[in-house]
Amino acid sequence: QVHLVESGGGLVQAGSSLSLSCTVSGLAFDSYVMGWYRQAPGKQRVLVARINVGGRTDYGDSVMDRFIISRDGAEKTVYLQMTSLKPEDTAVYYCYAAILSRNYWGQGTQVTVSS
């Protein structure tokens, strides 16, 4: 059974940094594109960042130059380092794993940035 377990969310002040982790079990981690989406109240889930099996990264425009995604195959974990956080970064952050037409999602972790 596949599990994606996020951790690291919380309440921080604007300008702060926060790191999220997502540890995976039940799938061949090194074969999957890994990434993070977020969903703010009343809004659609949008891409934050993703990293492919070769390490190439893509970022949403709103987090470019502030967030960094990375992956550790030995730990089967994908990380999201978030800096210069803004109130508009407040959302539930979801980890995902994707290969071909197969997607898996974590349960989400809340990030709240106060002004």
Outline the structure in words.
- Strands 2, 4, 5, 6, 9, 10 and 11 form a 7-stranded mixed sheet that branches. A 4-stranded antiparallel sheet has the order 1-3-8-7, with no helix packed on it.
- 0% of the residues lie in helices and 56% in strands.
- The protein has strands at 3-7, 10-13, 18-25, 33-39, 46-51, 57-59, 67-72, 77-82, 91-99, 102-105, 109-114.
- The N and C termini lie far apart (40 Å).
- It has 115 residues and is mostly beta strands.
- The mean pLDDT is 97.
- It has no helices and 11 strands.
Record the SSE blueprint.
Elements: E1 3-7, E2 10-13, E3 18-25, E4 33-39, E5 46-51, E6 57-59, E7 67-72, E8 77-82, E9 91-99, E10 102-105, E11 109-114
Parallel strand pairs: 2-11
Antiparallel strand pairs: 1-3, 3-8, 4-5, 4-9, 5-6, 7-8, 9-10, 9-11
- State the helix count: 0
Derived from helix and strand composition plus strand pairing, the structural class reads mainly beta
User: SSE order in H/E notation?
Assistant: EEEEEEEEEEE
Helix percentage: under 10%
Structural shape: globular
